[in-house]
Amino acid sequence: MIARALAWLCAPERPVLAPVLRIVVCAWLLFMRAIDIGPHAMKIVVDRPPTVLDATHLVALMEAFGAWPATPTTLRAIWVVSLVAGGLALVGLATRAALLAFFVSLSILVGLAQGYGFFNHTPALPILVVFALVFVPGTTALSLDAVIVARVSGLTRAAGWPQAPRFGDLLLLLTIGLVYASAGIAKVRAGVAWFDGSALAAYLSSDAGVQHWLYRGDDVVAYSYMTTPARLARTLSQMPAAMMVLSWATLALELLAPVMLVWSRAARIVICLGTIAFHLGVRKLMGISFIDWIVIDATIAMCAFTAWWHQRRVASAPATERAR
Asked: Fewest 10 Å CB contacts: which of 64, 110, 282, 295?
C-alpha cells in the first residue's frame, strides 16, 4: 500500500499549479508590492529612531550578517535586487535562483516596512509561496529556462512544459493549507472565546484604531487590532447565535483547509470558494483587505477547474481523437 502511494505521488505529469502560481504570484508581488515597498522601507529607516529599529529580530539578523545599520543606499540596492529577481522569476529565467533572491530581498523590505506600527500580514502568504516555489518540482515549467533547455537539446516545443512528480503541486497546496490551519489553531488555543462567538463579537463591535503594535526589546508597548467595523458588523455582533455560527464556520474553514486542498479537485474548488467568500466578508464587515490571499485562492480554484474540465473533455472524446 505504501509502495502504491509513493508510486502515485511520484508519477510524472505536466504540472499546472506550480508554474501558474509562480507567474501569478510573482506578477502580483512585483507590480503591486515590490515597486512601492522599497521607498516605504527606506522612509521607515530614515524616520524611525534607531532605538526603536534596533528592537526587531530582523534587525538582529541583519546585524549578524553585517548588514545593519541599514542606509537608504543599502535598502535601495536590496529594492533593485527584488525588482530584477521578481522579473526574472516571472518569466522563468534562472528561475529557482531568482525566486530565492526575490524571497530574501522582499522579506527584508516587507519586514522593515511593516514591522513597526500597523502590521499588515497580507503579503505573508504570497511571500511564503515564493519560498515554497524555490523547492517544489514543476516550478520551472512554462518558463524561459524550460524553453532554452528544449531548444539546446533539440526537443519539441512541448518540452518547454516538462513533466514533474505529482507531489510538487500537492506540497504547494499543503503549504498554503497549513497557513490557514495555523490561524485556526491560534483561535482554538485562545480558549472558549472563539467557540462561543464572543471573540468575533468583540472584533466586529470595536473601533480599535488609535494605537499600534510597538516593540522595545521583546516587550509589546502598545497594540491595536486595526479594524473599522461596518454597520452590518455592529448589528451582527449583537446576535450571539450569528456570532457562534460564524465563529464555528471560520474555524472549520481554516482547520479543514489542508485536507480539502489536497483531497480532490472538487474539494479544492469548494474550499477555495469558501476562503474567497470568507476574505470578502472580512473586507465588507471589518474593512480589512486580504486581496493577496484571494488572488492565490482564485488561482488554485481556476487551475483545479481547468484540469477537471480538460480531463472531462478527454474522457468524452472518441478513442481515435484521444490517441492523437
From this structure: 64
User: In the 8-state DSSP scheme, what is residue 196?
Assistant: S
User: CA torsion sign, 160 to 83 to 283 to 116?
Assistant: positive
Residue 214 belongs to what domain range? 167-313
pTM of the model: 0.83
DSSP state for residue 95 in the 8-state scheme:
H
pLDDT of residue 212: 45
Tell whether 172 and 309 lie within a shared domain.
yes
Q: Alpha-carbon distance 314 to 50, whole Å? A: 62
The residue from 140, 160, 180 where one domain ends is 160
**101 occurs within a structural domain:** yes
Burial class (CB in 10 A: 0-12, 13-18, 19+), 6: exposed
Dump the DSSP string for 131-182.
HHHTTSTTTTTTSHHHHHHHHHHT--GGGGS--EETHHHHHHHHHHHHHHHH
CB atoms within 10 A of CB 213: 17
**Residue 255 in contact with residue 170, Cβ under 8 Å?**
no
How many CB atoms within 10 Å of residue 86? 27
Higher confidence at residue 101 or residue 206?
101
Cell (9 digits) for 71:
542606509
Do 142 and 176 fall into the same domain?
no
- Helix, strand or coil for residue 12? strand
Q: How far apart are CA 27 and CA 87, in angstroms?
A: 8
pLDDT tens-digit series, residues 163-197: 778 888 889 999 999 999 999 998 888 778 888 88
> Looking at the structure, do residues 295 and 242 belong to the same domain, yes or no?
yes
User: What digits encode the pLDDT tens for the residues 198-235?
Assistant: 888 888 886 544 344 444 444 444 444 556 777 888 88
CB 130 within 8 A of CB 99: yes
